[in-house]
Amino acid sequence: xxxxxxxxxxxxxxxxxxxxxxxxxxxxxxxxxxxxxxxxxxxxxxxxxxxxxxxxxxxxxxxxxxxxxxxxxxxxxxxxxxxxxxxxxxxxxxxxxxxxxxxxxxxxxxxxxxxxxxxxxxxxxxxxxxxxxxxxxxxxxxxxxxxxxxxxxxxxxxxxxxxxxxxxxxxxxxxxxxxxxxxxxxxxxxxxxxxxxxxxxxxxxxxxxxxxxxxxxxxxxxxxxxxxxxxxxxxxxxxxxxxxxxxxxxxxxxxxxxxxxxxxxxxxxxxxxxxxxxxxxxxxxxxxxxxxxxxxxxxxxxxxxxxxxxxxxxxxxxxxxxxxxxxxxxxxxxxxxxxxxxx
Length: 343
Prior knowledge:
The protein is of the alpha+beta class. The protein is about 20% helix and about 15% strand.
């Protein structure tokens, strides 16, 4: 007799099977390039677009299918959110009209670093490690770089499916339960040649080796942890308060074809079909000269996309679902040498 599957696994599998699948643009040949002249013209000729579209070099050779593969946020099974705390902040808290985490915590170099996820659908992992390493600097004065590869390769089915997508909240739960090693221990990109899923479109999710690439480094000793994993209430003021107090947060949203063409301004969906779900790092907010409130975010498609790797999206209207899936956690002192207050 086989053993019964754990309840958590049953919840994940059944809910994942029932989750609605995002569909691509009707009528488009998915072998075509994602950059489309007609989309650029439609956006730039739209009187109320509020943003400029163009040819982004980073995506120059991407087909629609390859672009969709990069968008690695899967629809979260309802069971995964069971028991996850939703953090709230008081509405009475005073917040600045303009905020940029890079300026407030100028000594934290990771906040302003634009990364590259390559062809792997690992955005769910990147958004999480970026925010946690920023928060280590903000709260513990530690400039460290954490490994997206640890998550992609080792979290397994509880986080989703590696390079074929995952769940942001599960990434944060992994930090609590398993920790995440430094990028030096387990780098995302292979430094010799290019044998990683981030490099080639057809390359599979890497194998979890639990072994540092650097000689004399011990995997378990390089683990860094989060105290908790939580959602942030979808009210814009509360999201702002969370970022202002604790640092950048991971946000997931729906990507349409026109987003691939973003160059500057305050994005809102204008044209094109749904491509998939994507996770990025939210670092600030402000109001444009035209009076549009916006969020400021860092993408991980290198600096050859968007506004030097960054983008703005309209704030307060839950554009593309940007305000309804906000996740974060607080860094732990567990496993940090010399800590007198390990958690």
